[in-house]
Amino acid sequence: MHLLFICSRNKWRSRTAETIFKNRYGFQVASAGTEPSARIRVNEKMILRAEMIFVMEKRHKQRLLQKFAAACADKEIIVLDIPDEYQYMAPELTELLEESVMAYFEQED
Length: 109
Fold this sequence. Notes:
The chain is an alpha/beta fold. The protein has a single domain, classed as Rossmann fold, CATH 3.40.50. Helices cover 43% and strands 17% of the residues. It has a 4-stranded parallel β-sheet with strand order 2-1-3-4. Helix 1 (13-21) packs across helix 5. It is globular and about 35 Å long. It starts with a strand and ends with a helix.
Protein backbone atom coordinates (compact mmCIF):
# COMPACT_ATOMS: atom_id res chain seq x y z
CA MET A 1 0.00 0.00 0.00
CA HIS A 2 1.27 3.47 -0.92
CA LEU A 3 1.03 6.07 1.86
CA LEU A 4 1.71 9.80 1.54
CA PHE A 5 2.36 12.02 4.57
CA ILE A 6 2.04 15.80 4.22
CA CYS A 7 3.00 18.72 6.45
CA SER A 8 4.18 22.25 5.69
CA ARG A 9 7.94 22.04 5.14
CA ASN A 10 8.58 18.27 5.14
CA LYS A 11 11.27 18.67 7.76
CA TRP A 12 9.79 17.29 10.99
CA ARG A 13 6.32 15.75 11.04
CA SER A 14 5.81 14.19 7.61
CA ARG A 15 9.47 13.26 7.33
CA THR A 16 9.29 11.50 10.72
CA ALA A 17 6.19 9.62 9.55
CA GLU A 18 8.00 8.52 6.39
CA THR A 19 10.96 7.29 8.44
CA ILE A 20 8.72 5.38 10.87
CA PHE A 21 6.51 3.63 8.33
CA LYS A 22 8.89 3.12 5.39
CA ASN A 23 9.32 -0.58 4.66
CA ARG A 24 7.11 -1.56 7.61
CA TYR A 25 3.76 -3.32 7.53
CA GLY A 26 4.17 -3.70 3.76
CA PHE A 27 3.79 0.06 3.23
CA GLN A 28 5.51 2.07 0.54
CA VAL A 29 5.82 5.58 1.90
CA ALA A 30 6.55 9.09 0.69
CA SER A 31 6.39 12.46 2.40
CA ALA A 32 6.22 16.04 1.20
CA GLY A 33 5.35 19.58 2.19
CA THR A 34 2.85 22.14 0.95
CA GLU A 35 5.07 25.23 1.29
CA PRO A 36 7.41 26.60 -1.40
CA SER A 37 10.25 26.18 1.15
CA ALA A 38 9.49 22.47 1.69
CA ARG A 39 12.38 20.02 1.60
CA ILE A 40 10.31 18.01 -0.91
CA ARG A 41 7.21 19.73 -2.34
CA VAL A 42 4.08 17.71 -2.94
CA ASN A 43 3.16 17.21 -6.57
CA GLU A 44 0.31 15.68 -8.53
CA LYS A 45 2.20 12.45 -9.27
CA MET A 46 2.65 11.80 -5.53
CA ILE A 47 -1.06 12.28 -4.90
CA LEU A 48 -2.10 10.06 -7.79
CA ARG A 49 0.23 7.28 -6.61
CA ALA A 50 -0.93 7.39 -2.98
CA GLU A 51 -3.62 5.00 -1.82
CA MET A 52 -3.92 6.84 1.49
CA ILE A 53 -2.97 10.44 2.26
CA PHE A 54 -2.32 11.61 5.81
CA VAL A 55 -1.98 15.33 6.51
CA MET A 56 -0.89 16.83 9.80
CA GLU A 57 -3.38 19.74 9.87
CA LYS A 58 -6.66 20.76 8.23
CA ARG A 59 -4.90 23.54 6.33
CA HIS A 60 -2.73 20.96 4.56
CA LYS A 61 -5.85 19.18 3.32
CA GLN A 62 -7.30 22.49 2.15
CA ARG A 63 -4.12 23.30 0.22
CA LEU A 64 -4.12 19.91 -1.48
CA LEU A 65 -7.76 20.28 -2.47
CA GLN A 66 -7.15 23.78 -3.83
CA LYS A 67 -3.99 23.02 -5.78
CA PHE A 68 -4.66 19.43 -6.87
CA ALA A 69 -8.47 19.22 -7.03
CA ALA A 70 -8.62 16.68 -9.86
CA ALA A 71 -5.93 14.42 -8.39
CA CYS A 72 -7.61 14.51 -4.97
CA ALA A 73 -11.13 13.84 -6.29
CA ASP A 74 -11.20 10.13 -5.41
CA LYS A 75 -8.73 10.23 -2.53
CA GLU A 76 -9.44 10.02 1.16
CA ILE A 77 -7.34 12.61 2.95
CA ILE A 78 -7.00 11.90 6.67
CA VAL A 79 -6.27 14.80 9.01
CA LEU A 80 -4.14 13.68 11.96
CA ASP A 81 -4.33 16.98 13.89
CA ILE A 82 -0.67 16.94 14.90
CA PRO A 83 0.59 20.47 15.61
CA ASP A 84 3.93 21.80 14.40
CA GLU A 85 5.67 21.61 17.75
CA TYR A 86 7.93 18.58 17.44
CA GLN A 87 11.44 18.06 16.10
CA TYR A 88 12.33 15.30 13.61
CA MET A 89 12.05 11.87 15.28
CA ALA A 90 11.12 13.34 18.68
CA PRO A 91 9.91 10.44 20.87
CA GLU A 92 6.57 12.18 21.52
CA LEU A 93 6.04 12.66 17.79
CA THR A 94 6.93 9.09 16.86
CA GLU A 95 4.54 7.76 19.50
CA LEU A 96 1.75 10.08 18.36
CA LEU A 97 2.21 9.11 14.71
CA GLU A 98 2.33 5.38 15.49
CA GLU A 99 -0.88 5.58 17.54
CA SER A 100 -2.74 7.86 15.11
CA VAL A 101 -1.88 6.06 11.90
CA MET A 102 -2.12 2.48 13.19
CA ALA A 103 -5.43 3.22 14.92
CA TYR A 104 -6.82 4.11 11.52
CA PHE A 105 -5.74 0.77 10.05
CA GLU A 106 -7.18 -1.11 13.02
CA GLN A 107 -10.53 0.58 12.33
CA GLU A 108 -10.34 -0.49 8.69
CA ASP A 109 -9.94 -4.21 9.54
